[in-house]
Amino acid sequence: MLVDAPAFDPEFTSIRAVIPTPRGGYLAMTGFPGLLTHVDGTPYLDPQQMTETLKGLRAVGARQFLVLTEEEELPNGAFSLISDISQQVGLEIHFAAIEDFNVPGEAFLRRWPEHRARFEQALDAGEAVALSCQYGAGRSGLIAAWLLMGAGLPAATAVALVREHFHEAIENQLQENWLLDRDKVS
């Protein structure tokens, strides 16, 4: 039985959605914490907004945090800064890159079983699992839906649930088709 998600403040964080799962716990989708853009389009990191987002993830029950961005997508020092602040606020951070607008590649899939086991254990304990990509829609939504599928939801239902909480999630047909194909594999 799904219950309402804990509240978060979207004004001060980059948290996009907190989704209840059938196995208990929640999936929290977020843009890369602290990633902002100057008027000229140049990206930069705001440590205060990063801290507020990471504290917000802890406030909704997250202890596990998976970053799906590639390091080269972000301003220099982003991974070391987020690692430091995650540790300070009590989040265990993991990095598993998926190319932007794409689906998991071989390197991600090789490491997925260890991540999946850790995340399913957290969900079973009623915790939230935080997922971050650059904006918090495509790759975060893709992995959120995949974890929902692991909790027993059919792909189409998982995609719909993720989009119900953040309509921009799973941002292209490639990602949606990849999830639908996982139903055929199971």
TrEMBL record:
SUPFAM superfamilies to which the protein is assigned, alphabetical: (Phosphotyrosine protein) phosphatases II
Give the source's domain of life in one word: Bacteria
All copies of the Tyrosine specific protein phosphatases domain together span 106-177
Listed InterPro entries: Prot-tyrosine_phosphatase-like, Tyr_Pase_dom
Entry-linked PROSITE patterns: TYR_PHOSPHATASE_2
**Signal peptide range:** none
Could you identify this protein by its name?
Dual specificity protein phosphatase
The species this protein was found in: Sulfitobacter indolifex HEL-45
